[in-house]
């Protein structure tokens, strides 16, 4: 395989020509990680000559294909003459996965193991589960209701038609009904009504919605404000169907590392053998004491640095200019190796198993004997190295404090390290403990044997390896702790602040330790310190302890929920496991009460479980993360957002939306989500309105045509009505903006309208239903009266009614649109002109039923007068009602619209901003004097002013007893029937 | 907290716009309404319902179905106002469903237009073919079959008046919808006679009564043009109409009336549009005034963020 060629199948490497027997593939296309990974030929094949390759015979045992790209546990056995019948393990390290790119490799030779859909990529390709937005669900419900209505109409009118037929139509000799007709004639009239009413459910709605949804997605893709210039990553909507859900998000579950933080690790402080470095300057690398210690060859410091340099899987690559670049799979390792290099302990090269280190121009050779890899369960990694000078074997380990400190040799005082780790964690730093131990050669040989066995086991290999590793990792000498800083991304606190203002609850789910998580949460405004906020801990090791702790927190939460405190709870993975398996109900209540939660030390599956739990309470959840451990949570959530970050594209690929930086989330939700919701709300209801309108006219006409199911409109008009006359103007709703983006950003509370589903619900739909009925009555009555007697010619009358509907539609769309771009005006009024052009055209075809009709009508003054009358009567009450509401019962959206319009674009922002700010100041002053002026009361009037305030009923719930009556409304967002 | 009452300058614009819009509608609608009302009032319309009086027998259906009896009937109409020619003569049918699904489709436009398409009788059932030989009926279908066949002859002050029955149908129908080389055949030959018979020597394009009849009406009450009187009629003149009362509306309870009417720019006499316009215009003016009063009594500043609920101090909230 040449360097550039992409691999098509999964291969086992046999022979590789490059730096040592390793191929270095790039797996960006697979997992998005841009660093190189080393892949080696398995031990039995090392050293084979090129000529021998095609003579190899042997057996490879492989597992059933799966999609885990981090594992591949197989065995190889070569037949003689090649090495004896020794079974040798094959791992992912000997495998080239499909669609990898080889780098730094001249050629590689291997055997294909899986091809096609059985490769890891093929297996993980799977069809993603289709997601249904809350809006779609609502539209489906409304469609169902309309369907029932349609059936009712058909049954009632069908029956009435048959009755009328027998009572009246049989007397009408000119209709010439047969007196002894077959029984099935009774079905004719209902079926005719079914045909007439079939357009009641607009088929065009699906097409229109798909079209606008794909446009929403394109708007996200095109949004330059969400373009990550730093990494050259545009925002991308992989799922084009769920933009509206963005506007209805109620819970955001966020990962910490790489999502809130930059995942750019910088070594800041360390504690070596009880001495703290970097405490004053905040940067250990510039700490003179540490530099001195290094210069003086302080043994502790040297050991510490050696562990930093060797205990990792970093590959040094010498660039042509002579400088050394490190390729690391973990950002922490990268930071450690770089820091060590800055302290003159430079990892120069790794050839095969040989590592070369330069320390103050002294060369040290080490042979890496074994790597005890890092897993999230073990939370530590170790390497066994052979010091080539002294011949001694060392075990070097690093890992999380709680995984390392228990491994210390008995007698070592680990108190200082515990303190150090706590102290660093409070500063929001990531800590690692480093330790080492000298191994006796016999001990190592014995252990090595069992390690090899464990590594070649086909079943439970991971678990067995972990068990074997455990046997070696004990009695360590803890050398010290390192502290690595992971800075917050730009704009994270502001983003969280704005999103919380908009009523979204934040949960932070992290694999990191509790103290670090709390620190980061404080830094990014997620929680507030006392006295403004209060953090409640749920902890405990046993089921009883956890239960008590949970009960206590729940009680506090119930009592204090009326106070202005920002309450949050924090729970760790251990307690969470117990809670999720035993106390789901209590925890559900807790999550409903709490706006903020921190979950630490959680596993990927726990993250997904939490998402599921919130979803089961009927909340719209958004999960955002950047790493492979967030994938399950992202897929589980209603909306998954992936950050295309340093941990690769795995999350971004699994997600519905991928963005470059966390701060784009506020724009994604407040701008794109909100507009999408508003637009779809209008579009879908309008689609029903227009279909119902034409159906109601038909139904009304049937009362004047002997309930026989005569269609007033001819088939051409009916077809064109849905396809041409009414579909185009409303599509320009994708350009409609009820409020400018800036206003929305300044008043994020307005998102509540979308979250509570205020713009599309049975109540608003009833409004549209009523409007279509009213308009149908207006059109029909005016038409039949204005075109009565000698004018009541079928084609003319139907065209007058049709024109009336089209005129009204134009006015309705105009009235409902908020912003007027040229395109919108063109679409609305151009459509009206197009209606006439099209009808003039049809009217000039002699064979059409409408021949000359439109020309005749347009010459009649009464036609125009009738249409003006229809428009006036149809729109007058709608306009008056709208004005009345707008002025005397304005919604928050109306107020902001007025603010925008009345002050003009120049003044609006400045004035509104200062006004809002002064209001806020007022509130804060008031808040300090009167503590009960709480922030959450802001939601109260908004919710209570509409009958459709909450889409979930305030059912009696167990915690009512504990709440003062008024808190019901002061926390309406959190009181949902569960 | 600052209070903003009334506001100033641009804040009034939205109010002004809406109030202005309503006033404008009122100001425009009322004159249009008055004009249409005036036009409608100026037309003279004489309606004479004759179906009841023209049948003396008790068995009205039997009377009308009897082909032997003389069905002539003389009506006298006194003209209250002078009528300027041309005066349109309509027959008006009530409770006649020309828009019935079964009826309205029962025709074949191809057959009406093309000479060769005489046997194209789709949609024409049950009046598609003659009963005896199955020969196609031209014009086929229920509409043509039920052609109205009452006739009127007028005399003014005992002097016969000529009724112009030319050009009562649309030109477009005569030229493009009914063939000039298509002649009626097998029409009204069956056992059950529907309505009028057609002269088989005259092509369909000149059978104007048929063409008018086949422009189906959308409503169960409709008028169709019978002819025109080109001369003027003075006030208190007496019109004598001799009606051949042939058409059966008795079996289904329909009514027949003769209508004489002059026209204006808006058409015949129809007060609906005028009344509706005046009423709507009035309501709009009234609404506009109401809005003004409301605005004066209870002013609201537009665009005041203090009205945003989350910026509002909440007096109800217990401290």
Automatic annotation (TrEMBL), chain A:
What superkingdom heads the lineage? Eukaryota
Q: Which residues bind ATP?
A: 255-257, 333, 374, 398, 430, 510-512, 601, 607, 629-630
- Cofactor(s) named in the record: Mg(2+)
Q: Which reaction is recorded as catalysed by this protein?
A: ATP + H2O + phospholipidSide 1 = ADP + phosphate + phospholipidSide 2
Residue span, P-type ATPase C-terminal domain: 652-891
Q: What is this protein called?
A: Phospholipid-transporting ATPase
Say yes or no: keyword Transmembrane helix present: yes
Q: Species name for this entry?
A: Miscanthus lutarioriparius
UniProtKB/TrEMBL annotation, chain B:
- Which residue positions does the secretion signal occupy? none
Keywords for the protein's UniProt record, in alphabetical order: Membrane, Transmembrane, Transmembrane helix
Where it sits in the cell: the answer is: Membrane
The keyword Transmembrane is annotated on this UniProt entry = yes
Q: Which residue spans traverse the membrane?
A: 12-39, 275-297
**Is Transmembrane helix given among the entry's keywords?**
yes
Q: Which GO terms describe its cellular component?
A: endoplasmic reticulum; Golgi apparatus; plasma membrane
InterPro entries found in the cross-reference section: CDC50/LEM3_fam
Assigned protein family: Belongs to the CDC50/LEM3 family.
By what name is this protein known?
Answer: ALA-interacting subunit
